[in-house]
What we know:
Elements: E1 3-8, E2 12-18, H1 22-27, E3 42-48, E4 54-63, E5 66-72, H2 76-87, E6 93-96, E7 101-109, E8 124-128, E9 137-142, E10 155-156, H3 159-169, H4 206-215, E11 220-227, E12 237-240, E13 243-252, E14 255-261, H5 262-270, E15 276-277, E16 280-284
Parallel strand pairs: 1-10
Antiparallel strand pairs: 1-7, 2-5, 2-6, 3-4, 4-5, 7-9, 8-9, 11-14, 11-16, 12-13, 13-14, 15-16
Amino acid sequence: xxxxxxxxxxxxxxxxxxxxxxxxxxxxxxxxxxxxxxxxxxxxxxxxxxxxxxxxxxxxxxxxxxxxxxxxxxxxxxxxxxxxxxxxxxxxxxxxxxxxxxxxxxxxxxxxxxxxxxxxxxxxxxxxxxxxxxxxxxxxxxxxxxxxxxxxxxxxxxxxxxxxxxxxxxxxxxxxxxxxxxxxxxxxxxxxxxxxxxxxxxxxxxxxxxxxxxxxxxxxxxxxxxxxxxxxxxxxxxxxxxxxxxxxxxxxxxxxxxxxxxxxxxxxxxxxxxxxxxxxxxxxxxxxxxxxxxxxxxxxxxx
Length: 303
C-alpha cells in the first residue's frame, strides 16, 4: 500500500503575470511552448542567455487571466526584472506573488508514476510535475484557501525526503545539480524532461539549443551516480585517473546526481578506469526513461 507524502517548499517563490499578452510574452523568450497550456495545467521551462545557457528555471502554471511562475525564491526579483525588460508594450502586468502562496509538493511512497495526488481546497493551483510522472504533484495554495485541509490523509515529509525521491528518479534541480548562468539546456536534461520545444520557433538562445539538438553534441549530462560509500555534500569533483570529468550535485546517502562528461566516462571505463570521488568509487546509473547512453550522450528526444 502506498503512502502520500507532502513537503513544504519554503525556498520557492511565485511571480504573477496577468493580462491578455501573458502567454505571448513568455512564448517569445522561454524555452517551452506556452501553447501546451491549452491542454495541461503547467509546463517546465527556462529563459536562456543569448549564448544558450540557462539563466532562469521555472514552472509556468495556467490561470484564468494569465500565468503563475513558480521558481526559486532568490530568482524572483531578477526574473521579474528580466520579464519587465522584454515586456515593452505587451498587455501584461508582472508582480511578485510569493507572499500570496504556500508552495508544497506531494508524492507517493513507494514512488510510482501518477502518484501523490491529493484533494485540493479552492484557490489552490495543483499540477502534476511535468518533468517526470513519478515526481508527484506540486501545489500553489492561495492564502484565501484552507490549504491545511489538503494535508488530510498525507504523511509530513521534509525537503531531504523530497530530494532523495527526486535523485532516485534522476531529475536535476537548478542550483543543486547545475548552475544557472553556466549550463546548457541539454546538460540539465531539458530535452528529456520536455522543458524545451524544438518546434515552436524563435526565443532567446534558440539557435544554440537547436544546433546542439541536431548535431547531437551534448556530451555533458546530469545523471545519477552510486557510490561504494556515502557521498559527500558540497559539489565535489569527480575524477577518472588524474582527469576531472564532472562534479557531484545533490546527494542522498550513497546515491547522487552528477554533471558528467559522459564521453569521458565511457572512454575511461573502456580502459578499466572507474570514476572516483576521493577514495569512493562511482558507477553511473543512467535512468531507463532517458534517450541517451554513455556511448551516445548526445542522443535526444525532440518534444
